[in-house]
Amino acid sequence: MEGVSLAGLLRVRHTGYLSRPARPQGRNTPTMIREFRPVSNRFAWLCPHRRRAFALGLLVCLLAGCAGPSRHEKRTGLRAGPSAGQTLQIRPRGGEAALIPANHHFLLADGTTIPARVWPVTGRARARILALHGFGDSRDAWEFSAPCLARQGIEVIAPDQRGFGETAHRGAWSGTARMVQDIREEARQLHAEAPDIPLFVMGESMGGALAALLATDRPDGTTRGFILVSPAIWKLDPVSRLVVDMLDLIAPEWIFTGAHAPGEHIATDNIAALRRLYFDPLTLHGFRLDLLRGLIDLMAAGQKAAPHVRAPLLVLYGDRDQMIPAPPMARFWADLPQDSRKDLIPGGHHLLLRDRDGARAVADIASWILAPDRLLPSGGDAAAAAWRAGDPAD
User: Fold this and answer.
1) 143 and 57 share a domain?
2) Does 224 share its domain with 85?
3) Does pLDDT of 17 surpass 60?
4) Is residue 280 part of a domain?
């Protein structure tokens, strides 16, 4: 991190995409799927000004999901190799680039149509989940976990969130209040369709922050509970926020990705999931700077919402999450109502449900929905208690 400036950290271009040059790390290994290297969640080695730069770098990574392709890469399917003249093939295999049509649509009060994917159950559903994806992702975020939940009788309905996936105004930030209202309307529609089937709202990353805000509503019988998977909750220090505000004021339409953020930040150890996210035509790879400001506002609001949650809640976090550090997550947990359920997944990454061992987190979610009084099958209750006893908020 020596010599890293905030301006260099948020290096941008007016048009096109940024991509990190490939580094020699094994033969023909694309940057986006490099070998996972564990890093500490504590960041104790960072002095204050480096923490600020590192925090912004992680936010850029959180936005980007994985490095975006350049125009040349999108056209040719090739990426520059570690030595001059060498190229690496990074073409999709099988259904990695498949566009799966929406099989459900929500019509919202303002006339907006929101496409969604539904993973139905065989027979009568025991519960339903309204599943909210993360930043830059889409309704396809649940391809690895929804089939498992459906086999246990839990139907998953996953909409594209406004500004993402296949919605109108793709790539534009619609505002936190508007996005929460969308979810509120979608939940009410699903409840009206099947009022006798318990409905849960589940959000991953950005979707988790939005779900946390919705969980502060006065209970009206629409939802039975909320599930936050690696929620994007993190209030930046005032100086970092000021830097982002200034950059947003100067050049809100600049396009950037997380490719030039310092270090390696791995969203999941599942290469198949990374490849699908990378090649999925619904994934956003480049973002306007004003989207970063919108996400920062949402993350701060999500952190602040913790003590105001009014509904049953399960929050999951992996101790190898390199996107949301341990200290803000620990503070979020501490601020939640005492009866909120905390689930720590040892070895889990930010995209917990897409990890190679993601079945543990999926089983915990199903257990909490279907038998909320039982201990979580992964041992996550005890792991969470031990993790909190280790002072992760320091």
Assistant:
1) no
2) no
3) no
4) no
Give the separation between CA 326 and CA 385, rounded to whole angstroms. Answer: 14
Residues 34 and 14 in one domain: yes
Handedness of CA 52, 23, 230, 376 (dihedral sign): negative
Whether residues 227 and 240 share a domain: the answer is no
- What is the distance between the alpha carbons of residues 63 and 295, in angstroms, rounded to a whole number? 8
- Confirm if 339 and 255 have CB atoms less than 8 A apart: no
Higher-pLDDT residue of 85 and 207 is 207
Does 172 reside within a domain? yes
CA 63 to chain centre: 9
Contact 35, 29 (CB under 8 A): yes
Are residues 255 and 285 in contact, defined by beta-carbon separation less than 8 angstroms? no
How many domains does the structure of the chain reveal?
2
What is the model's pLDDT at position 82? 43
Residue 1 belongs to some domain of the structure? no
Give pTM, 2 decimals. 0.82
Closest C-alpha to 345, from 331, 356, 334: 356
Task: Measure the CA–CA gap between 369 and 154, rounded to whole angstroms.
Answer: 9
Same domain, 63 and 86: yes
Do 313 and 183 fall into the same domain? yes
Q: Is residue 277 part of a domain?
A: no
> Can you tell me the mean pLDDT for 134-158?
97
Q: Using the predicted structure, report yes or no on whether residue 368 has a pLDDT greater than 70.
A: yes
